[in-house]
């Protein structure tokens, strides 16, 4: 009986370690839905692309009020905002690949 409990606790610990390692290996933030309306450029502070392992390619805009909004990188208005932000702040440039 004692061996059963030791084996159970050991298996549980292995499971916890495994799931924690799996969690850290994946992307921190992915987008599953896009905001489809235009956002005025003056309200967007920064942008960053989602991780390449996310199911959808997306851009995350951070607004001046620190809200994060997922947008479609193929939208013309999104590309225009990204160009403006990159123009104004060269350190803001992120690769979109």
Automatic annotation (TrEMBL):
<feature type="domain" description="Chemokine interleukin-8-like">
    <location>
        <begin position="27"/>
        <end position="85"/>
    </location>
</feature>
<keyword id="KW-0964">Secreted</keyword>
<dbReference type="GO" id="GO:0005615">
    <property type="term" value="C:extracellular space"/>
</dbReference>
<dbReference type="InterPro" id="IPR036048">
    <property type="entry name" value="Interleukin_8-like_sf"/>
</dbReference>
<comment type="similarity">
    <text>Belongs to the intercrine beta (chemokine CC) family.</text>
</comment>
<dbReference type="Pfam" id="PF00048">
    <property type="entry name" value="IL8"/>
</dbReference>
<keyword id="KW-0145">Chemotaxis</keyword>
<dbReference type="InterPro" id="IPR039809">
    <property type="entry name" value="Chemokine_b/g/d"/>
</dbReference>
<dbReference type="GO" id="GO:0005125">
    <property type="term" value="F:cytokine activity"/>
</dbReference>
<feature type="signal peptide">
    <location>
        <begin position="1"/>
        <end position="21"/>
    </location>
</feature>
<dbReference type="InterPro" id="IPR001811">
    <property type="entry name" value="Chemokine_IL8-like_dom"/>
</dbReference>
<comment type="subunit">
    <text>Self-associates. Also heterodimer of MIP-1-alpha(4-69) and MIP-1-beta(3-69). Interacts with CCR1.</text>
</comment>
<keyword id="KW-0202">Cytokine</keyword>
<keyword id="KW-0732">Signal</keyword>
<keyword id="KW-1015">Disulfide bond</keyword>
<comment type="function">
    <text>Monokine with inflammatory and chemokinetic properties. Binds to CCR1, CCR4 and CCR5. One of the major HIV-suppressive factors produced by CD8+ T-cells. Recombinant MIP-1-alpha induces a dose-dependent inhibition of different strains of HIV-1, HIV-2, and simian immunodeficiency virus (SIV).</text>
</comment>
<protein>
    <recommendedName>
        <fullName>C-C motif chemokine</fullName>
    </recommendedName>
</protein>
<dbReference type="InterPro" id="IPR000827">
    <property type="entry name" value="Chemokine_CC_CS"/>
</dbReference>
<dbReference type="GO" id="GO:0006935">
    <property type="term" value="P:chemotaxis"/>
</dbReference>
């Amino acid at each position: 009986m004692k061996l059963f409990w030791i084996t159970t606790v050991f298996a549980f610990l292995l499971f916890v370690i495994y799931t924690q390692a799996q969690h850290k290996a994946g992307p921190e933030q992915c987008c599953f839905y896009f905001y489809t309306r235009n956002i005025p450029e003056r309200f967007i502070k920064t942008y960053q692309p989602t991780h390449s392992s996310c199911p959808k390619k997306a851009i995350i805009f951070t607004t001046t009020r620190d809200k994060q909004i997922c947008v479609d990188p193929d939208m013309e208005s999104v590309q225009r905002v990204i160009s403006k932000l990159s123009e104004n702040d060269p350190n803001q440039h992120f690769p979109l690949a």
